[in-house]
Amino acid sequence: MNKSDLTRKIAEKMSISQKESLRFINIFEDVMVSELAKDNSIILHGFGTLSPWKQSERFGRNPRTGICVLIKSRTSVKFRPGKELLRLLNERK
Known about the structure:
three-stranded antiparallel beta sheet; alpha+beta; 5 strands; single chain
C-alpha cells in the first residue's frame, strides 16, 4: 500500500474527500516527524511505539568495490509493535 492507496482507504472509511484525507495524512506525518526530531517517542496505544535512535559513525564496505567508507552518524527510527496489533495480526492465521 502506498500513500495514495492509504488516502483513498481513509477517505472511504471516513466518508470524506480524498483531498481532506490527504491533508490529514500530511499533518499526521508532520506531527510525527516534528516529535521524533525532538527525540520524543510516539506511543499509539495498542498499535505500537516509534522511537528515535542515534546510529553512531562507523566504517562500512562497498560490496561492489570492496573499498571501506566512513558512514556518518544519523538518527533513525525503531518501531515496536503493540500487543493489540500483534494479537490482531496473529488471529487471522
